[in-house]
Specification:
The protein is built from five helices and three strands; from the N terminus they run H-E-H-E-H-H-E-H. The chain has 184 residues and is α+β, with helices and mostly antiparallel strands. Among the domains are: 50 residues; 62 residues, no CATH class. The protein has a three-stranded antiparallel β-sheet with strand order 1-3-2.
Amino acid sequence: MTAEQPREAASATVGTVGRTSRRLWSPGSPAGPRNGARRTVAAYDNYEQAERAVDRLSDLSFPVERVAIVGQDLQTVEQVTGRMNYPRSAWRGAASGAVPGALIGWIFGVFSWVDPLIASLLLAVYGLVIGAAIGAIIGLIVYAMQRGRRDFESVTIMSPKRFEVVVDDEVAEEAARLLLEAGI
């Protein structure tokens, strides 16, 4: 089998329903107690369509524990959300240091035997202030060490280009028939 054959089999199933592909096992299929062959019975452009197909199989009393939705052709998208500078890095560091500082201070205050309520609130406030200060300092140091190589903030998202509904080989024909009859 050449490297092009699995790609052809996958492209033959995009947008098709009720027809099994030539590929018997889809990469990324969960390895469970039944590590047997699986077949792609349908492929969709978005997750909602694949989810609707599995939901329809469930409504038709199909054994859905033998079904998996597998995202294929992953792509990484890094969305830039803003410019990074010294004040922003200090603010982000302070925010990330304040919460753990407050929690640690509160925990120490709870174990005070004399007056746990007052001590826990007071130590939580002290922890918040000290944690924010330490976090801001660390944020500034980390930003300064980058020396302008990454002067932006971003969020990274991984998203598949298509979603395949794969089914154990023994019940693939039944799943394909049910989806074809349902028109999904």
